[in-house]
Every structure is written in structure tokens, then in C-alpha cells.
Amino acid sequence: MNLQLSAPLGTVAISKLRESIMTTKHENLVSWLRDAHAMEQQAEQMLTAQKERLHNYPKLRTRIEKHIEETVGQRETLERALTRLGSEPSTLKDMSGKLMAFGQAMGGMMMSDEVVKGAMSGYVFETLEIASYTVLIAAAKAVGDTQTQQDCEAILQQEIAMADWLREHLPELSQAFLDRSDTPGLEAKR
Ligand code: MG
Ligand code: FE
What parts of the chain have a pLDDT lower than 50? Predict the structure, then answer.
């Protein structure tokens, strides 16, 4: 009889302990969406700075302008997803530690005012975005959030298109940079 009485109490204690050490799928999805939101804020800042520096590479500048518009739309889509899920966007400040580590991995290329290095770091950043949205699609699927899944699939296509464009244009861009560098009186790096 005594054992029967204490059994439910033990069960409650164990389930409380489990709750305290576990993270729900919903919580992980929200946390990753917040990371992605900060990543897009960072993207907007970097692309805008990169665009403003560019003078002699109109094709790249135009493609970056297009991607800035897409990036703003992506950030707004993530904000709507977070609101739907009962959360709110993280700020860049929340993410600064993570992004700083990322920046260090890029070896100062991010802040470079040289067009080829800028395009290279842009490509690396797009690849990070591709990985992020691939993870988010799986997480949205896992919680059955079809809207977020579809939104992230649409964003993923934009990131893939930008990464592909940069990779495909690196040879042409490098050639143009090298030619300008080699010509007296022409500025090459931006
Ligand atoms: Mg993006
Ligand atoms: Fe992007």
C-alpha cells in the first residue's frame, strides 16, 4: 500500500526532472529562427556596405542590390514566423558572439574593401545561409509547421541563387580585377 502511494509522486518528480533538462522541438525551431533573423540583419549590413564601396563592377553591384531587397524580405518573413510561434526576433547583439567567431573564421575578409575578397566572403556567407535554412526546413517539418517550412524553402532558393551567381562570376570578376590592376590609371579594388 505504501509503495502504491509513493509511486505516483516518484513519477511526477521524474517527469519534472525530464522537463527541466529537455528542449522541445518548438523551442529549438524558435531559437534557430532567431539565429537566422540575426544572420539576415548581418547580411543586410554587409551587403549594403559592400554595395556602397563598389564603383567599377556594375554587374556585381546590381546583383548585390537585388539580394539586399531579397534579404530584407527574408528578415520580414522570419519576423512573421517568430510572431506566429509566439516569440520575437533576436537582435544582432544577441548574436554578436556567434557572428564574431564566424568573422574571425573569415580572416578579416569581411571588412575588406577589395572586390574579389568581398565576393569570396559573400559566397562563404551565402553558404552559411544555405546551411541555416536547410536546418530550419528540417526543424519546421519536425514540428509540422508547414508555413515556416514553405517560407524557408523559398528563402533557401534565393540563397542558392545568390551563392551560384557569385561562384559563377568569380572567374570573370577576378579577370576584370587583374586587368584593372595591371592598367595604369585604373582603380581595381572597388
Ligand atoms: Mg539571406
Ligand atoms: Fe543571402
Answer: 107
Radius of gyration (C-alpha) of the chain in whole angstroms: 22
- pLDDT at position 106 is 55
* Among the bound ligands, the one closest to the CA of 126: 2
Look up residue 107 and give its DSSP letter: T
Cα(21)–Cα(129) distance, rounded to whole angstroms? 29
Q: pLDDT tens across 104-146, in order? A: 555 455 556 789 999 999 999 999 999 999 999 999 999 999 9
Q: How far apart are the first and last CA of the chain?
A: 83
Half-sphere exposure of 39 (CA within 13 A, CB side): 23
Give the pLDDT confidence score for residue 17 in this predicted structure: 81
**DSSP assignment letter at 89:** P
CA of 101 to the centre of ligand 2 (A): 19
Whole-number Å distance, alpha carbon 175 to ligand 1 midpoint, is 27
Contact present, 20 and 120 (Cβ < 8 Å)? no
pLDDT 10s digits, 172-185: 999 999 999 999 99
| CA of 64, nearest ligand number | 2
d(CA 82, CA 78): 6
Nearest ligand atom owner, CA of 77: 1
- The three cell numbers locating residue 160: 542558392
